[in-house]
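Hey,
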Amino acid sequence: MSPDLLRLIGRKSPASLSVLPRATLWSYAWLVSILPSIFAAVALRKNRALLMKQYIFGMVIFGLLPVMYGAYDLFGDLRGFLSNRDKAVRFYGFPAIVLAYVFLTVATQLHIFGIYCGTQLVSSWAARGVKKTK
């Protein structure tokens, strides 16, 4: 758990978590992307196109946009790392900013793939209701 979240619920964070950076606003906005995922799970179970459309909209707003803003927000740190690699903050021997960008890249790919699959499902569910003409 994040030290900020532990502080919110009135708990003291362990010393091992004290090296973690403070959570940013975009990461809290990104956490809201859990809700559209619940819409997608219900939509898959019941074949509901409206819920899948809400998932797609929610993933764009609360999934992709915060991750893209996070990449923009961390770009200054990445530029600082590229200019001076010796003073980089390291996490288990790896530069923390590089790990953050690896995470952001994987998150972006997963969100795009989920949005693509959602649009394919909506179009196939819409085609199911259209009658064929001879």
